[in-house]
Design a protein that fits this description.
There is one protein chain. With about 500 residues, the protein is α/β, with parallel strands linked by helices. The chain has 2 domains: about 270 residues, Aldehyde Dehydrogenase, Chain A, domain 1; about 190 residues, Aldehyde Dehydrogenase, Chain A, domain 2. Helices cover about 40% and strands about 20% of the residues. Strands 15-16-17-14-13-19-20 form a 7-stranded mixed β-sheet, sandwiched between helices. A hairpin with a 2-residue loop joins strand 2 and strand 3. The protein is globular.
Length: about 500
């Protein structure tokens, strides 16, 4: 039976209705079988504005709640979230297609950011300087922006919404989430848990939709900031539109993450890292390693041999079955897109070492499955090197030496993540200092920072000055007010001064 998913506005489940959204709905698939399991309402402008109005009405009282009490709500939310992790992981897996263990990791990464946000009383403290002049003190306050919004992708339906809403809510804002319509159930469930934890109605709203809903969030003057994660063209559109309307914007786009493998590296360790980072979650991660850069022909030949051996042992199948390495892609359009890139690689002259097309799982023939694919001798002018494929496709782009490998990663238009595998501390240190990429791993294949550091790429992987989570998130979701205060002694008058004040 196909179920209907609801919006979550003003603390209540709000069904889609023809009067509000013109009867527009999107299909939510079970990626493992290809069957439609639910339908999601695509909000019209009326519903989005209703969410903004509820958020605007609720926010002042929440902002006036002291940060410690706000943190207690987050603590209660964490308890509820941990109690329901198994159920949430199963729901997430059923709509996205990632394995249960990977779904739990998706949730856990979000949990870690909420844990960091419990420190809001400390993170929101301002500064104080006494006696900067005669009887004059200066101090600063961090205050919430008001109503803020987040637009999140399908590939992390728990983690990225929690990355955005956690700091925003802890800082005293009201938050409107527009999650992906491909796997929308977990964000709604998260909002329900927040309400049970004591979050006032209207502080967290979830509105499903497409560009019509997004454009309302981008242009309505009551929304003061927008966070986004997705493809680069949309990130750039959201950033330019939001900033043109006077909003703060924090937008993260595509990636083409390289892993440089030096001749002195432990090749078994590097091959294991590439298999997990390249094919985990069917490659549907913005931090997936999609380009292996072995340095030297001998390194490349040996690494390729080890990769082929490991690929032959990968288990691809229904994501909720034990022992599966990765499951299906999110929908049929994703399969079509990735297979199109595989053909482009063949047409461009790359060596197709392992072909994942035509992969089928017995009993799940209509599921959105694609086998692991490996290309070798890929050059930097090929589309499979330049563009984000977002599927289980790993390409090997050989480098003659270290400088060429460094240059490949640094000159690519995306600058999200990069890694190097080596036993040479000097080479690693030089790589970290010189590579033109925002997040770097040394013998770490997926360099996603922990919650109290910030996450963000460079170049066309990121638009905006502040990153996600960590201290940057609290800077993004607050504004600074600086106060210069003087209490002159009773009866003392100095008369008017026409000189600009200075401290002397």
């Amino acid at each position: 039976m196909v179920r209907d998913i609801t919006h979550f506005i003003g603390g209540s489940a709000i069904p889609g209705s023809p009067e509000a959204n013109g009867g527009r709905w999107g299909d939510v698939f079970d990626p493992s079988t290809g069957a439609v399991q639910a339908r999601v309402p695509l909000a019209g402008a009326h519903e989005v504005r209703a969410a903004i109005a509820d958020a605007e009405a609720a926010q002042p009282e929440w902002a006036a709640t002291n940060p410690q009490k706000r943190a207690r709500v987050l603590m209660r939310f964490l308890e509820l979230l941990r109690d329901e992790t198994e159920e949430l992981a199963a729901l997430l897996s059923s709509e996205h297609g990632k394995t249960l263990d990977d779904a739990k990791g998706d949730i856990q990464r979000g949990v870690e950011v909420i844990e960091f946000c419990i420190g809001a009383p400390h993170l929101l403290k301002g500064e104080y300087s006494t006696g900067v002049g005669t009887g004059i003190d200066v101090y600063s306050l961090r205050q919430p922006l008001g109503v803020v919004a987040g637009i999140t992708p399908f590939n992390f339906p728990a983690m990225i919404p929690l990355w955005q809403m956690g700091p925003a809510i802890a800082a005293g804002n009201a938050f409107i989430l527009k999650p992906s319509e491909r796997d929308p159930s977990v964000p709604v469930r998260i909002a329900e848990l927040f309400l049970r934890a004591g979050l006032p109605a209207g502080i967290l709203n979830v509105v499903h939709g497409d560009r019509e809903a997004v454009d309302v969030l981008l242009t309505d003057e009551r929304v003061r900031a927008i966070g986004f994660v997705g493809s680069t063209p949309i990130a750039e559109y959201i950033y330019t539109t939001a900033t043109a309307h006077g909003k703060r914007a924090q937008c993260f786009g595509g990636a083409k993450n390289h892993l440089v493998v030096m001749p002195d590296a432990d090749l078994d360790q590097a091959a294991d890292a590439l298999i997990g980072a390249g094919y985990g979650s069917a490659g549907e991660r913005c931090m997936a390693i999609s380009v292996a850069v072995p340095v030297g022909e001998e390194t490349a030949d040996a690494l390729t041999e080890k990769l082929v051996e490991r690929i032959s042992k990968l288990k691809v199948g229904p994501p909720r079955e034990p022992g599966i390495d990765y499951g299906p892609l999110v929908n049929a359009a994703a399969v079509e897109r990735v297979t199109g890139y595989i053909q482009q690689g063949i047409d461009a002259g790359a060596e197709l070492v392992v072909d994942g097309r035509g992969f089928s799982v017995p009993g799940h023939e209509e599921g959105f499955y694609l086998g692991p694919t490996l290309f070798d001798r890929v050059t930097t002018d090929m589309s499979i090197y330049r563009e984000e494929i977002f599927g289980p496709v790993l390409v090997i782009a050989r480098a003659a030496d270290y400088e060429e490998a460094l240059r490949m990663a640094s000159e690519h238009e995306y600058g999200n993540g990069v890694g190097i595998f080596t036993r040479d501390g000097d080479a690693a240190r030089d790589f970290v200092a010189r590579v033109n990429v925002g997040m770097v791993g040394v013998n770490v294949p997926i360099p996603v920072p922990i919650a109290y550091y910030t996450f963000g790429g460079w170049k066309r992987s990121g638009f905006g000055d502040l990153n996600q989570h960590g201290a940057d998130a609290f800077r993004f979701y607050t504004k600074t007010k600086t106060v210069t205060s003087r209490w002159p002694a009773a009866g003392v008058r100095e008369g008017a001064s026409f000189v600009i004040p200075t401290m002397h």
